Amino acid sequence: MKPVKATARNDHLLFVVFAVVVLAMPIWLAPLGAGYPDLMQKFAIYGLFAMGFNILFGLTGYLSFGHAAFLGVGSYTAVWSFKLLGMNPLPAIALAVVTTGVFAWVIGYISLRRTGIYFSILTLAFAQMSYNLAYSVLTPITNGETGLRVLNDDPRILDHMVGRGEADGSLVATLFGVEMNGMPGFYFCAAFLIIGMYISIRIFRSPFGLMLRAIKTNQNRLNYTGVSTRPYALTAFVISGMYAGLAGGLLCVTDPLAGAERMQWTASGEVVLMTILGGAGTLVGPIIGAGLIKYSENIFSAFNEQTLHGIFAFLPDGIEGAVVSVAGLFVGEGWHLTLGLLFMIIVIFLPGGLIEGGKRLVDMTGRGPRGGGGGRAGDAAPQAAE
């Protein structure tokens, strides 16, 4: 067991290293072909999305299949902020987080009356209802299947007050005169990712986080001792939803457009994959999982038959054609097959995710700590909370 001071020191070191790695993404991602702003923005945004989901699923064990609803609500709120107030991203982000928090409280208050698979089904039902409402029923608010975007004739009250009401071309979120696209947009998202990590660490190491882990370990025993677990679970649900709302708002900061497709059940399933792939209940695992999935989506989906022929050109012609035919099933439009195989391998051989795999490799080299070296990032939290 680590003493409190050692755990706090490790947390500070983790946070500093994490911040440096995030800010240096353009440097170390360039050799991997992923050092361009749009993809790095996705890494930061979906990393936040997975980080928030991990606070609910990783700590309490409550598996939500409806978190895409919060992503969509955050997106719509941000775009309406742009339309009514102006293109400043800070009010849009603040409103997205607050609105999503209220929405999450309503859904969580109802869904948390059940546990296990029934809770998961309830959240999935709410997400599908939200998707259908956004797609067809609430078209005056969401603009239906076309999507909601910012127009030149929108009120944008604050922009007109400072003389920025007229704009040539497309409208872009602007902070202190800097447009939030390209590299400035990435660093704006990266700043929120770093802040989100700091909050996540504080939650993991707090008495509140300890209670959430107790709920996951044995909720019935807590109930029998007279402890009401529902307020803690509801708070975790709301915090998790606010993270998702923040991610949805950032999606619109970098591209002022909101559509109902962000609320589909597939988006909810994607964040589950991200969290499990990286390591549920760990601090950085879900972010790694989000990065891996988005990297696969953008890199492997771009492979085509010509690219594969270039890769396997060293093979004899007959063998090359056969290999390209088989490999073509796993890239391009079929990149989900590659992701599915990777997910199966992780679940079967590394149920703790990629973080567990990394720790096993460290232990195999003989450099890891003896005994409890395979524990998760949250395992030392009880000492920090005491």
From TrEMBL:
<feature type="compositionally biased region" description="Gly residues">
    <location>
        <begin position="368"/>
        <end position="377"/>
    </location>
</feature>
<feature type="transmembrane region" description="Helical">
    <location>
        <begin position="90"/>
        <end position="110"/>
    </location>
</feature>
<feature type="transmembrane region" description="Helical">
    <location>
        <begin position="12"/>
        <end position="31"/>
    </location>
</feature>
<feature type="transmembrane region" description="Helical">
    <location>
        <begin position="307"/>
        <end position="331"/>
    </location>
</feature>
<keyword id="KW-0472">Membrane</keyword>
<protein>
    <submittedName>
        <fullName>ABC-type branched-subunit amino acid transport system permease subunit</fullName>
    </submittedName>
</protein>
<feature type="region of interest" description="Disordered">
    <location>
        <begin position="366"/>
        <end position="386"/>
    </location>
</feature>
<dbReference type="InterPro" id="IPR043428">
    <property type="entry name" value="LivM-like"/>
</dbReference>
<dbReference type="InterPro" id="IPR001851">
    <property type="entry name" value="ABC_transp_permease"/>
</dbReference>
<keyword id="KW-0812">Transmembrane</keyword>
<feature type="transmembrane region" description="Helical">
    <location>
        <begin position="43"/>
        <end position="70"/>
    </location>
</feature>
<feature type="transmembrane region" description="Helical">
    <location>
        <begin position="337"/>
        <end position="355"/>
    </location>
</feature>
<dbReference type="Pfam" id="PF02653">
    <property type="entry name" value="BPD_transp_2"/>
</dbReference>
<feature type="transmembrane region" description="Helical">
    <location>
        <begin position="271"/>
        <end position="295"/>
    </location>
</feature>
<dbReference type="GO" id="GO:0005886">
    <property type="term" value="C:plasma membrane"/>
</dbReference>
<feature type="transmembrane region" description="Helical">
    <location>
        <begin position="185"/>
        <end position="204"/>
    </location>
</feature>
<keyword id="KW-1003">Cell membrane</keyword>
<dbReference type="GO" id="GO:0015658">
    <property type="term" value="F:branched-chain amino acid transmembrane transporter activity"/>
</dbReference>
<feature type="transmembrane region" description="Helical">
    <location>
        <begin position="117"/>
        <end position="138"/>
    </location>
</feature>
<feature type="transmembrane region" description="Helical">
    <location>
        <begin position="231"/>
        <end position="251"/>
    </location>
</feature>
<keyword id="KW-1133">Transmembrane helix</keyword>
